[in-house]
Write a structure and sequence with these properties.
seven-stranded mixed sheet, alpha+beta
Length: 167
């Protein structure tokens, strides 16, 4: 386990962010979603400059976890329709370093960012069968507020909505 640096994401990080996202999706969701849905989601993330546009937005906080020369984690989040609520959009960690505390460091960095912005609550969704994600967020004090079913590329999925106070 090496030293991890959490910092703002930049355009030079795109390849690493996409690599971590793809590895995380394949590891976390391979038994939950069809291969086609995972592949389509990853393809959508790789389309055009979608990730670059996201990390360049002024109203979105994007952080990476870096070990040596490698991006091993990524988080992005931003405003919701209510200025006192932030939406956590993505938190991905390379499966090779799961349980090394990187997800926690990224989440704490985002929580501190939200606190500085005057945000009171953080909200996000987790796939119903993503036990790794569900236990991670529960461990960090987030609670489920609702369950909803949506459609992802023709595949119905159930998500749990979580909320937590920024303290």
């Amino acid at each position: 386990m090496g030293s991890t640096l959490i910092r703002d994401a930049g355009s030079d990080d795109i390849a690493g962010i996409l690599r971590v996202t793809e590895r995380s999706w394949n590891s976390a969701y391979s038994e939950i979603l069809s291969t086609e849905t995972i592949d389509q989601t990853i393809s959508e993330l790789h389309e055009g400059d979608a990730t670059l546009q996201l990390i360049e937005r002024e109203d979105v906080a994007s952080f990476v976890a870096e070990r040596g020369e490698d991006i091993v984690g990524y988080l992005s989040g931003g405003p919701s329709t209510d200025e006192t609520v932030a939406r956590l959009g993505a938190l991905y960690v390379d499966p090779d370093v799961w349980n090394d505390g990187i997800g926690t460091e990224l989440l704490q960095t985002f929580e501190e960012h939200c606190r500085q912005q005057g945000v009171e609550l953080i909200q996000f969704s987790v796939l119903d069968e993503n036990e790794i994600g569900l236990s991670f967020y529960r461990k960090h004090g987030y609670t489920e507020t609702e369950e909803r079913t949506t459609d992802r590329f023709g595949e119905p999925i159930t998500e749990r909505v979580f909320r937590g106070e920024v303290e």
